[in-house]
Design a protein that fits this description.
Helix 4 (113-125) runs parallel beside helix 5. The longest helix is centred in the last third of the chain and has 14 residues, at 220-233. The protein contains 7 helices and 9 strands; from the N terminus they run βββαββαααβαβββαα. Helices cover 29% and strands 26% of the residues. The termini are far apart. A 6-stranded mixed β-sheet has the order 5-6-7-3-8-9, covered by helices on one side. Strands 2-1-4 form a 3-stranded antiparallel β-sheet, with helices on one face.
Length: 234
């Protein structure tokens, strides 16, 4: 199972995005500045945009979903229960997971954006899609919910998860790093070998690298563990 971008070029006005690379099972983190083309790539991977040239091949992908940054874009149900059920999810189980059991009969738009985001992500993850494309999934979540979401992502096995984000503090352990710079998509490679080449690394990871540490992954916990291992060797 994989999603392969073969000589993909997308143009809109003066903007051009180009990508050649393969997204295989695991967690892929894609970073880049605002306007660099991350959302465009997400839409291409999800099949909502067609490239001007090249092909996006989805091989062995039976089901896939795209999550937009704003959760209200996904709302189709008139109640929280109906909204969760629209994903094919067990509404009671999803609501309990995100602490919204008392709101099942409420209008989804009566929820705060953070509550709606939690509902959307929990329902989405219950689907177990082969391909999950997440555009800024951490927005509107507090620190506790970000950590819970990261753990849920790390539990996906044998599936492709592609995360597009500006998040700089709470991140899941990932398998591969990508960067988008002025419309050019760069596959930095597998983690941990790719970490030293990651220009958008969060501050805690940059500091660790500057001190000569070699974290096994990109989370803050990995950085702390790398520091502890270094002290043990000393």
């Amino acid at each position: 199972m994989q999603v392969a971008c073969e000589g993909v070029v997308f143009t809109r006005g003066a903007f051009t995005l180009s990508c050649t690379g393969t997204f295989s099972p695991g967690i892929h983190l894609v970073t880049g500045r605002v306007g660099s083309g991350k959302t465009t790539l997400a839409l291409l991977l999800a099949g909502l945009l067609d490239p001007a040239s090249g092909m996006v091949h989805r091989e062995g992908v039976r089901g896939f979903s795209l999550s937009f940054q704003n959760p209200e874009y996904h709302v189709t149900g008139s109640t929280v229960r109906a909204e969760a059920a629209s994903y094919g999810a067990d509404a009671d189980a999803v609501a309990a997971e995100v602490e919204l059991s008392a709101r099942l009969d409420d209008d989804p738009f009566a929820l705060s954006r953070g509550e709606l985001k939690r509902l959307h992500l929990a329902a989405l993850l219950s689907r177990e899609d082969d391909l999950l494309v997440l555009d800024e999934p951490f927005s509107s979540l507090d620190c506790i919910q970000k950590h819970r979401f990261c753990r849920a992502l790390e539990e996906r096995e044998g599936e492709i998860t592609v995360i597009f984000t500006h998040e700089r503090q709470v991140l899941p352990a990932v398998d591969r790093l990508w960067e988008v710079e002025e419309g050019s998509v760069r596959d930095l490679g597998a983690v941990p070998e790719a970490i030293p080449h990651w220009r958008h690394a969060p501050p805690y990871l940059r500091e660790a690298l500057a001190r000569g540490l070699a974290p096994e992954n990109i989370t803050f916990k990995d950085t702390i563990e790398a520091e502890g291992a270094c002290r043990t060797r000393d």
